[in-house]
Amino acid sequence: MTKAGKKQVNPQQDRAVKHGSGPILVVAGAGTGKTRVISERIKNLIKNREIGPKEVLALTFTEKAAQEMSDRMADVMPLGYEEPWITTFHSFADRILKKEGLEFLG
User: Fold this and answer.
1) C-alpha torsion angle, residues 83, 98, 106, 89 (rounded to 10)
2) pLDDT classification of 106: cutoffs 50, 70, 90
3) pTM of the prediction?
């Protein structure tokens, strides 16, 4: 545990958090810390790699995980920061189709 009482990532998780350039896929069982790893990865990209929050897309299967990641971002990022796009696969597709759906009809 850290001083603030938050769990730290283990060495395998830390590798994912600090992964070099390019996408990364995190696959693990329930309760293994996927949401924490992805949240820490996003924070690392924004704070240490100068990636703009609007350049980040994080997709999850559940609203709970998406909300948890968004909440974790709010806890550590400065007031007024732009939020990364953190959502579920379904909400992502819905948003794209509503915005660009007519383009698909040709």
Assistant:
1) 60
2) low
3) 0.75
Q: Give long-range contacts, CB 8 A cutoff, 24+ apart: 44-52.
A: 44/17, 44/18, 46/77, 46/81, 46/84, 52/82
Print burial letters for 77-106: b (CB count within 10 Å at least 16), e (below 16). beeeeeebebbbeeebeeeeeeeeeeeeee
Dump the DSSP string for 28-84: --TTSSHHHHHHHHHHHHHHHS---GGG-EEEES-HHHHHHHHHHHHHHSPTTPPPP
pLDDT digits (tens, 9 = 90+) for 17-41: 999 888 888 888 888 988 889 888 8
**Residue 90: is its pLDDT beyond 90?**
yes
